Amino acid sequence: IKKNRLITYAVITCFMIILFSGCSPEKKEDDTVEKQAQPSIEALNLDNEEKFYLSSSGADNSFVFDLKNYNFKRVKLWVEYYYKGEKKKDYPIGEININDGEKLSLSIVEDDNRQLINIYASAKGKNDSKRVGPAVMEYKAPKSYLKEIKAVEGARTIMDSQEMYIGFICKNKDAISFNEESLKGEQRGESEILRNEYAYMIKAIFYEE
User: Among 2-6, 19-23, 75-79, 101-105, where is mean pLDDT lowest?
Assistant: First the structure.
């Protein structure tokens, strides 16, 4: 009887090992595939040559976004202006059709003399480029104020018909205030940005239809 129990225990142990060794990697692989299949947007790190090329086209600042697992048809872009955390105005950039394999870019052109800023958006593929904009805004802050212009960092999941912010401009009399870590990946750092006296949030909504 004791021998039979040992055999039974050994069989059950082997079965459990086979079960978990067979299922766990598959589940992990499924989870990885599912995660990778999520459509996402991520700002690319541009090298000096790319930055020079973009600046030579007239842009003072440019952001290029990679769209992965992209299954949307169009994107709507605009800028929200905030003063001391309170929303004051929307500035439409425009709506643009963007296909799989194309990259979304933002070009920011500043006119320091007139305290104006223009933001264009483009969808760039291998053979063509589409452009909308600009959103024309007036800097309300004095010229002496400090300024920060940034795109969000890390990949962010795109959800159909849900707004997301992809970049910002903020100005403050003293130090620019925001936590870098709050701007990365899926973390939402809007409240950090709105701690600055003047804030311009660049937002987007992607649509499947």
Answer: 19-23
Phi, psi of 151 (to 5 degrees): -100, 155
Range 86-90 contact pairs with CB under 8 angstroms and sequence separation of 24 or more: none
Per the listing, tokens 């007036």 go with 138
38: amino acid identity, one letter:
Q
What tens digit of pLDDT does each residue of 32-46 get?
A: 444 558 899 999 987
Sign, CA torsion 163/168/172/174: positive
For 112, what's the count of Cα atoms within 13 Å in the CB-facing half-sphere?
A: 5
Q: How many CA atoms lie within 13 A of 140 on its CB side?
A: 13
> Is the separation of the CB atoms in 77 and 121 below 8 Å?
yes
Q: Which two tokens stand for residue 32?
A: 């990885």
CA–CA distances in Å: residue 26 to residues 12, 20, 35:
21, 10, 14
- What pLDDT digit, counting tens, does each position of 181-198 carry? 766 766 667 888 888 999
If we measure between CA atoms, which residue out of 168, 174, 167 comes closest to residue 146? 174
Phi, psi of 12 (to 5 degrees): -65, -45
Q: Residue 165: which of 65, 33, 53, 49 has the closest Cα?
A: 65
Output the DSSP codes for 162-180: -EEEEEEEEEESSS----G
Task: Decide if pLDDT at 14 tops 60.
Answer: no
Nearest to 132 by CA among 202, 170, 75: 75
Taking every pair of Cα atoms in the chain, the longest distance, rounded to a whole number of angstroms, is: 95
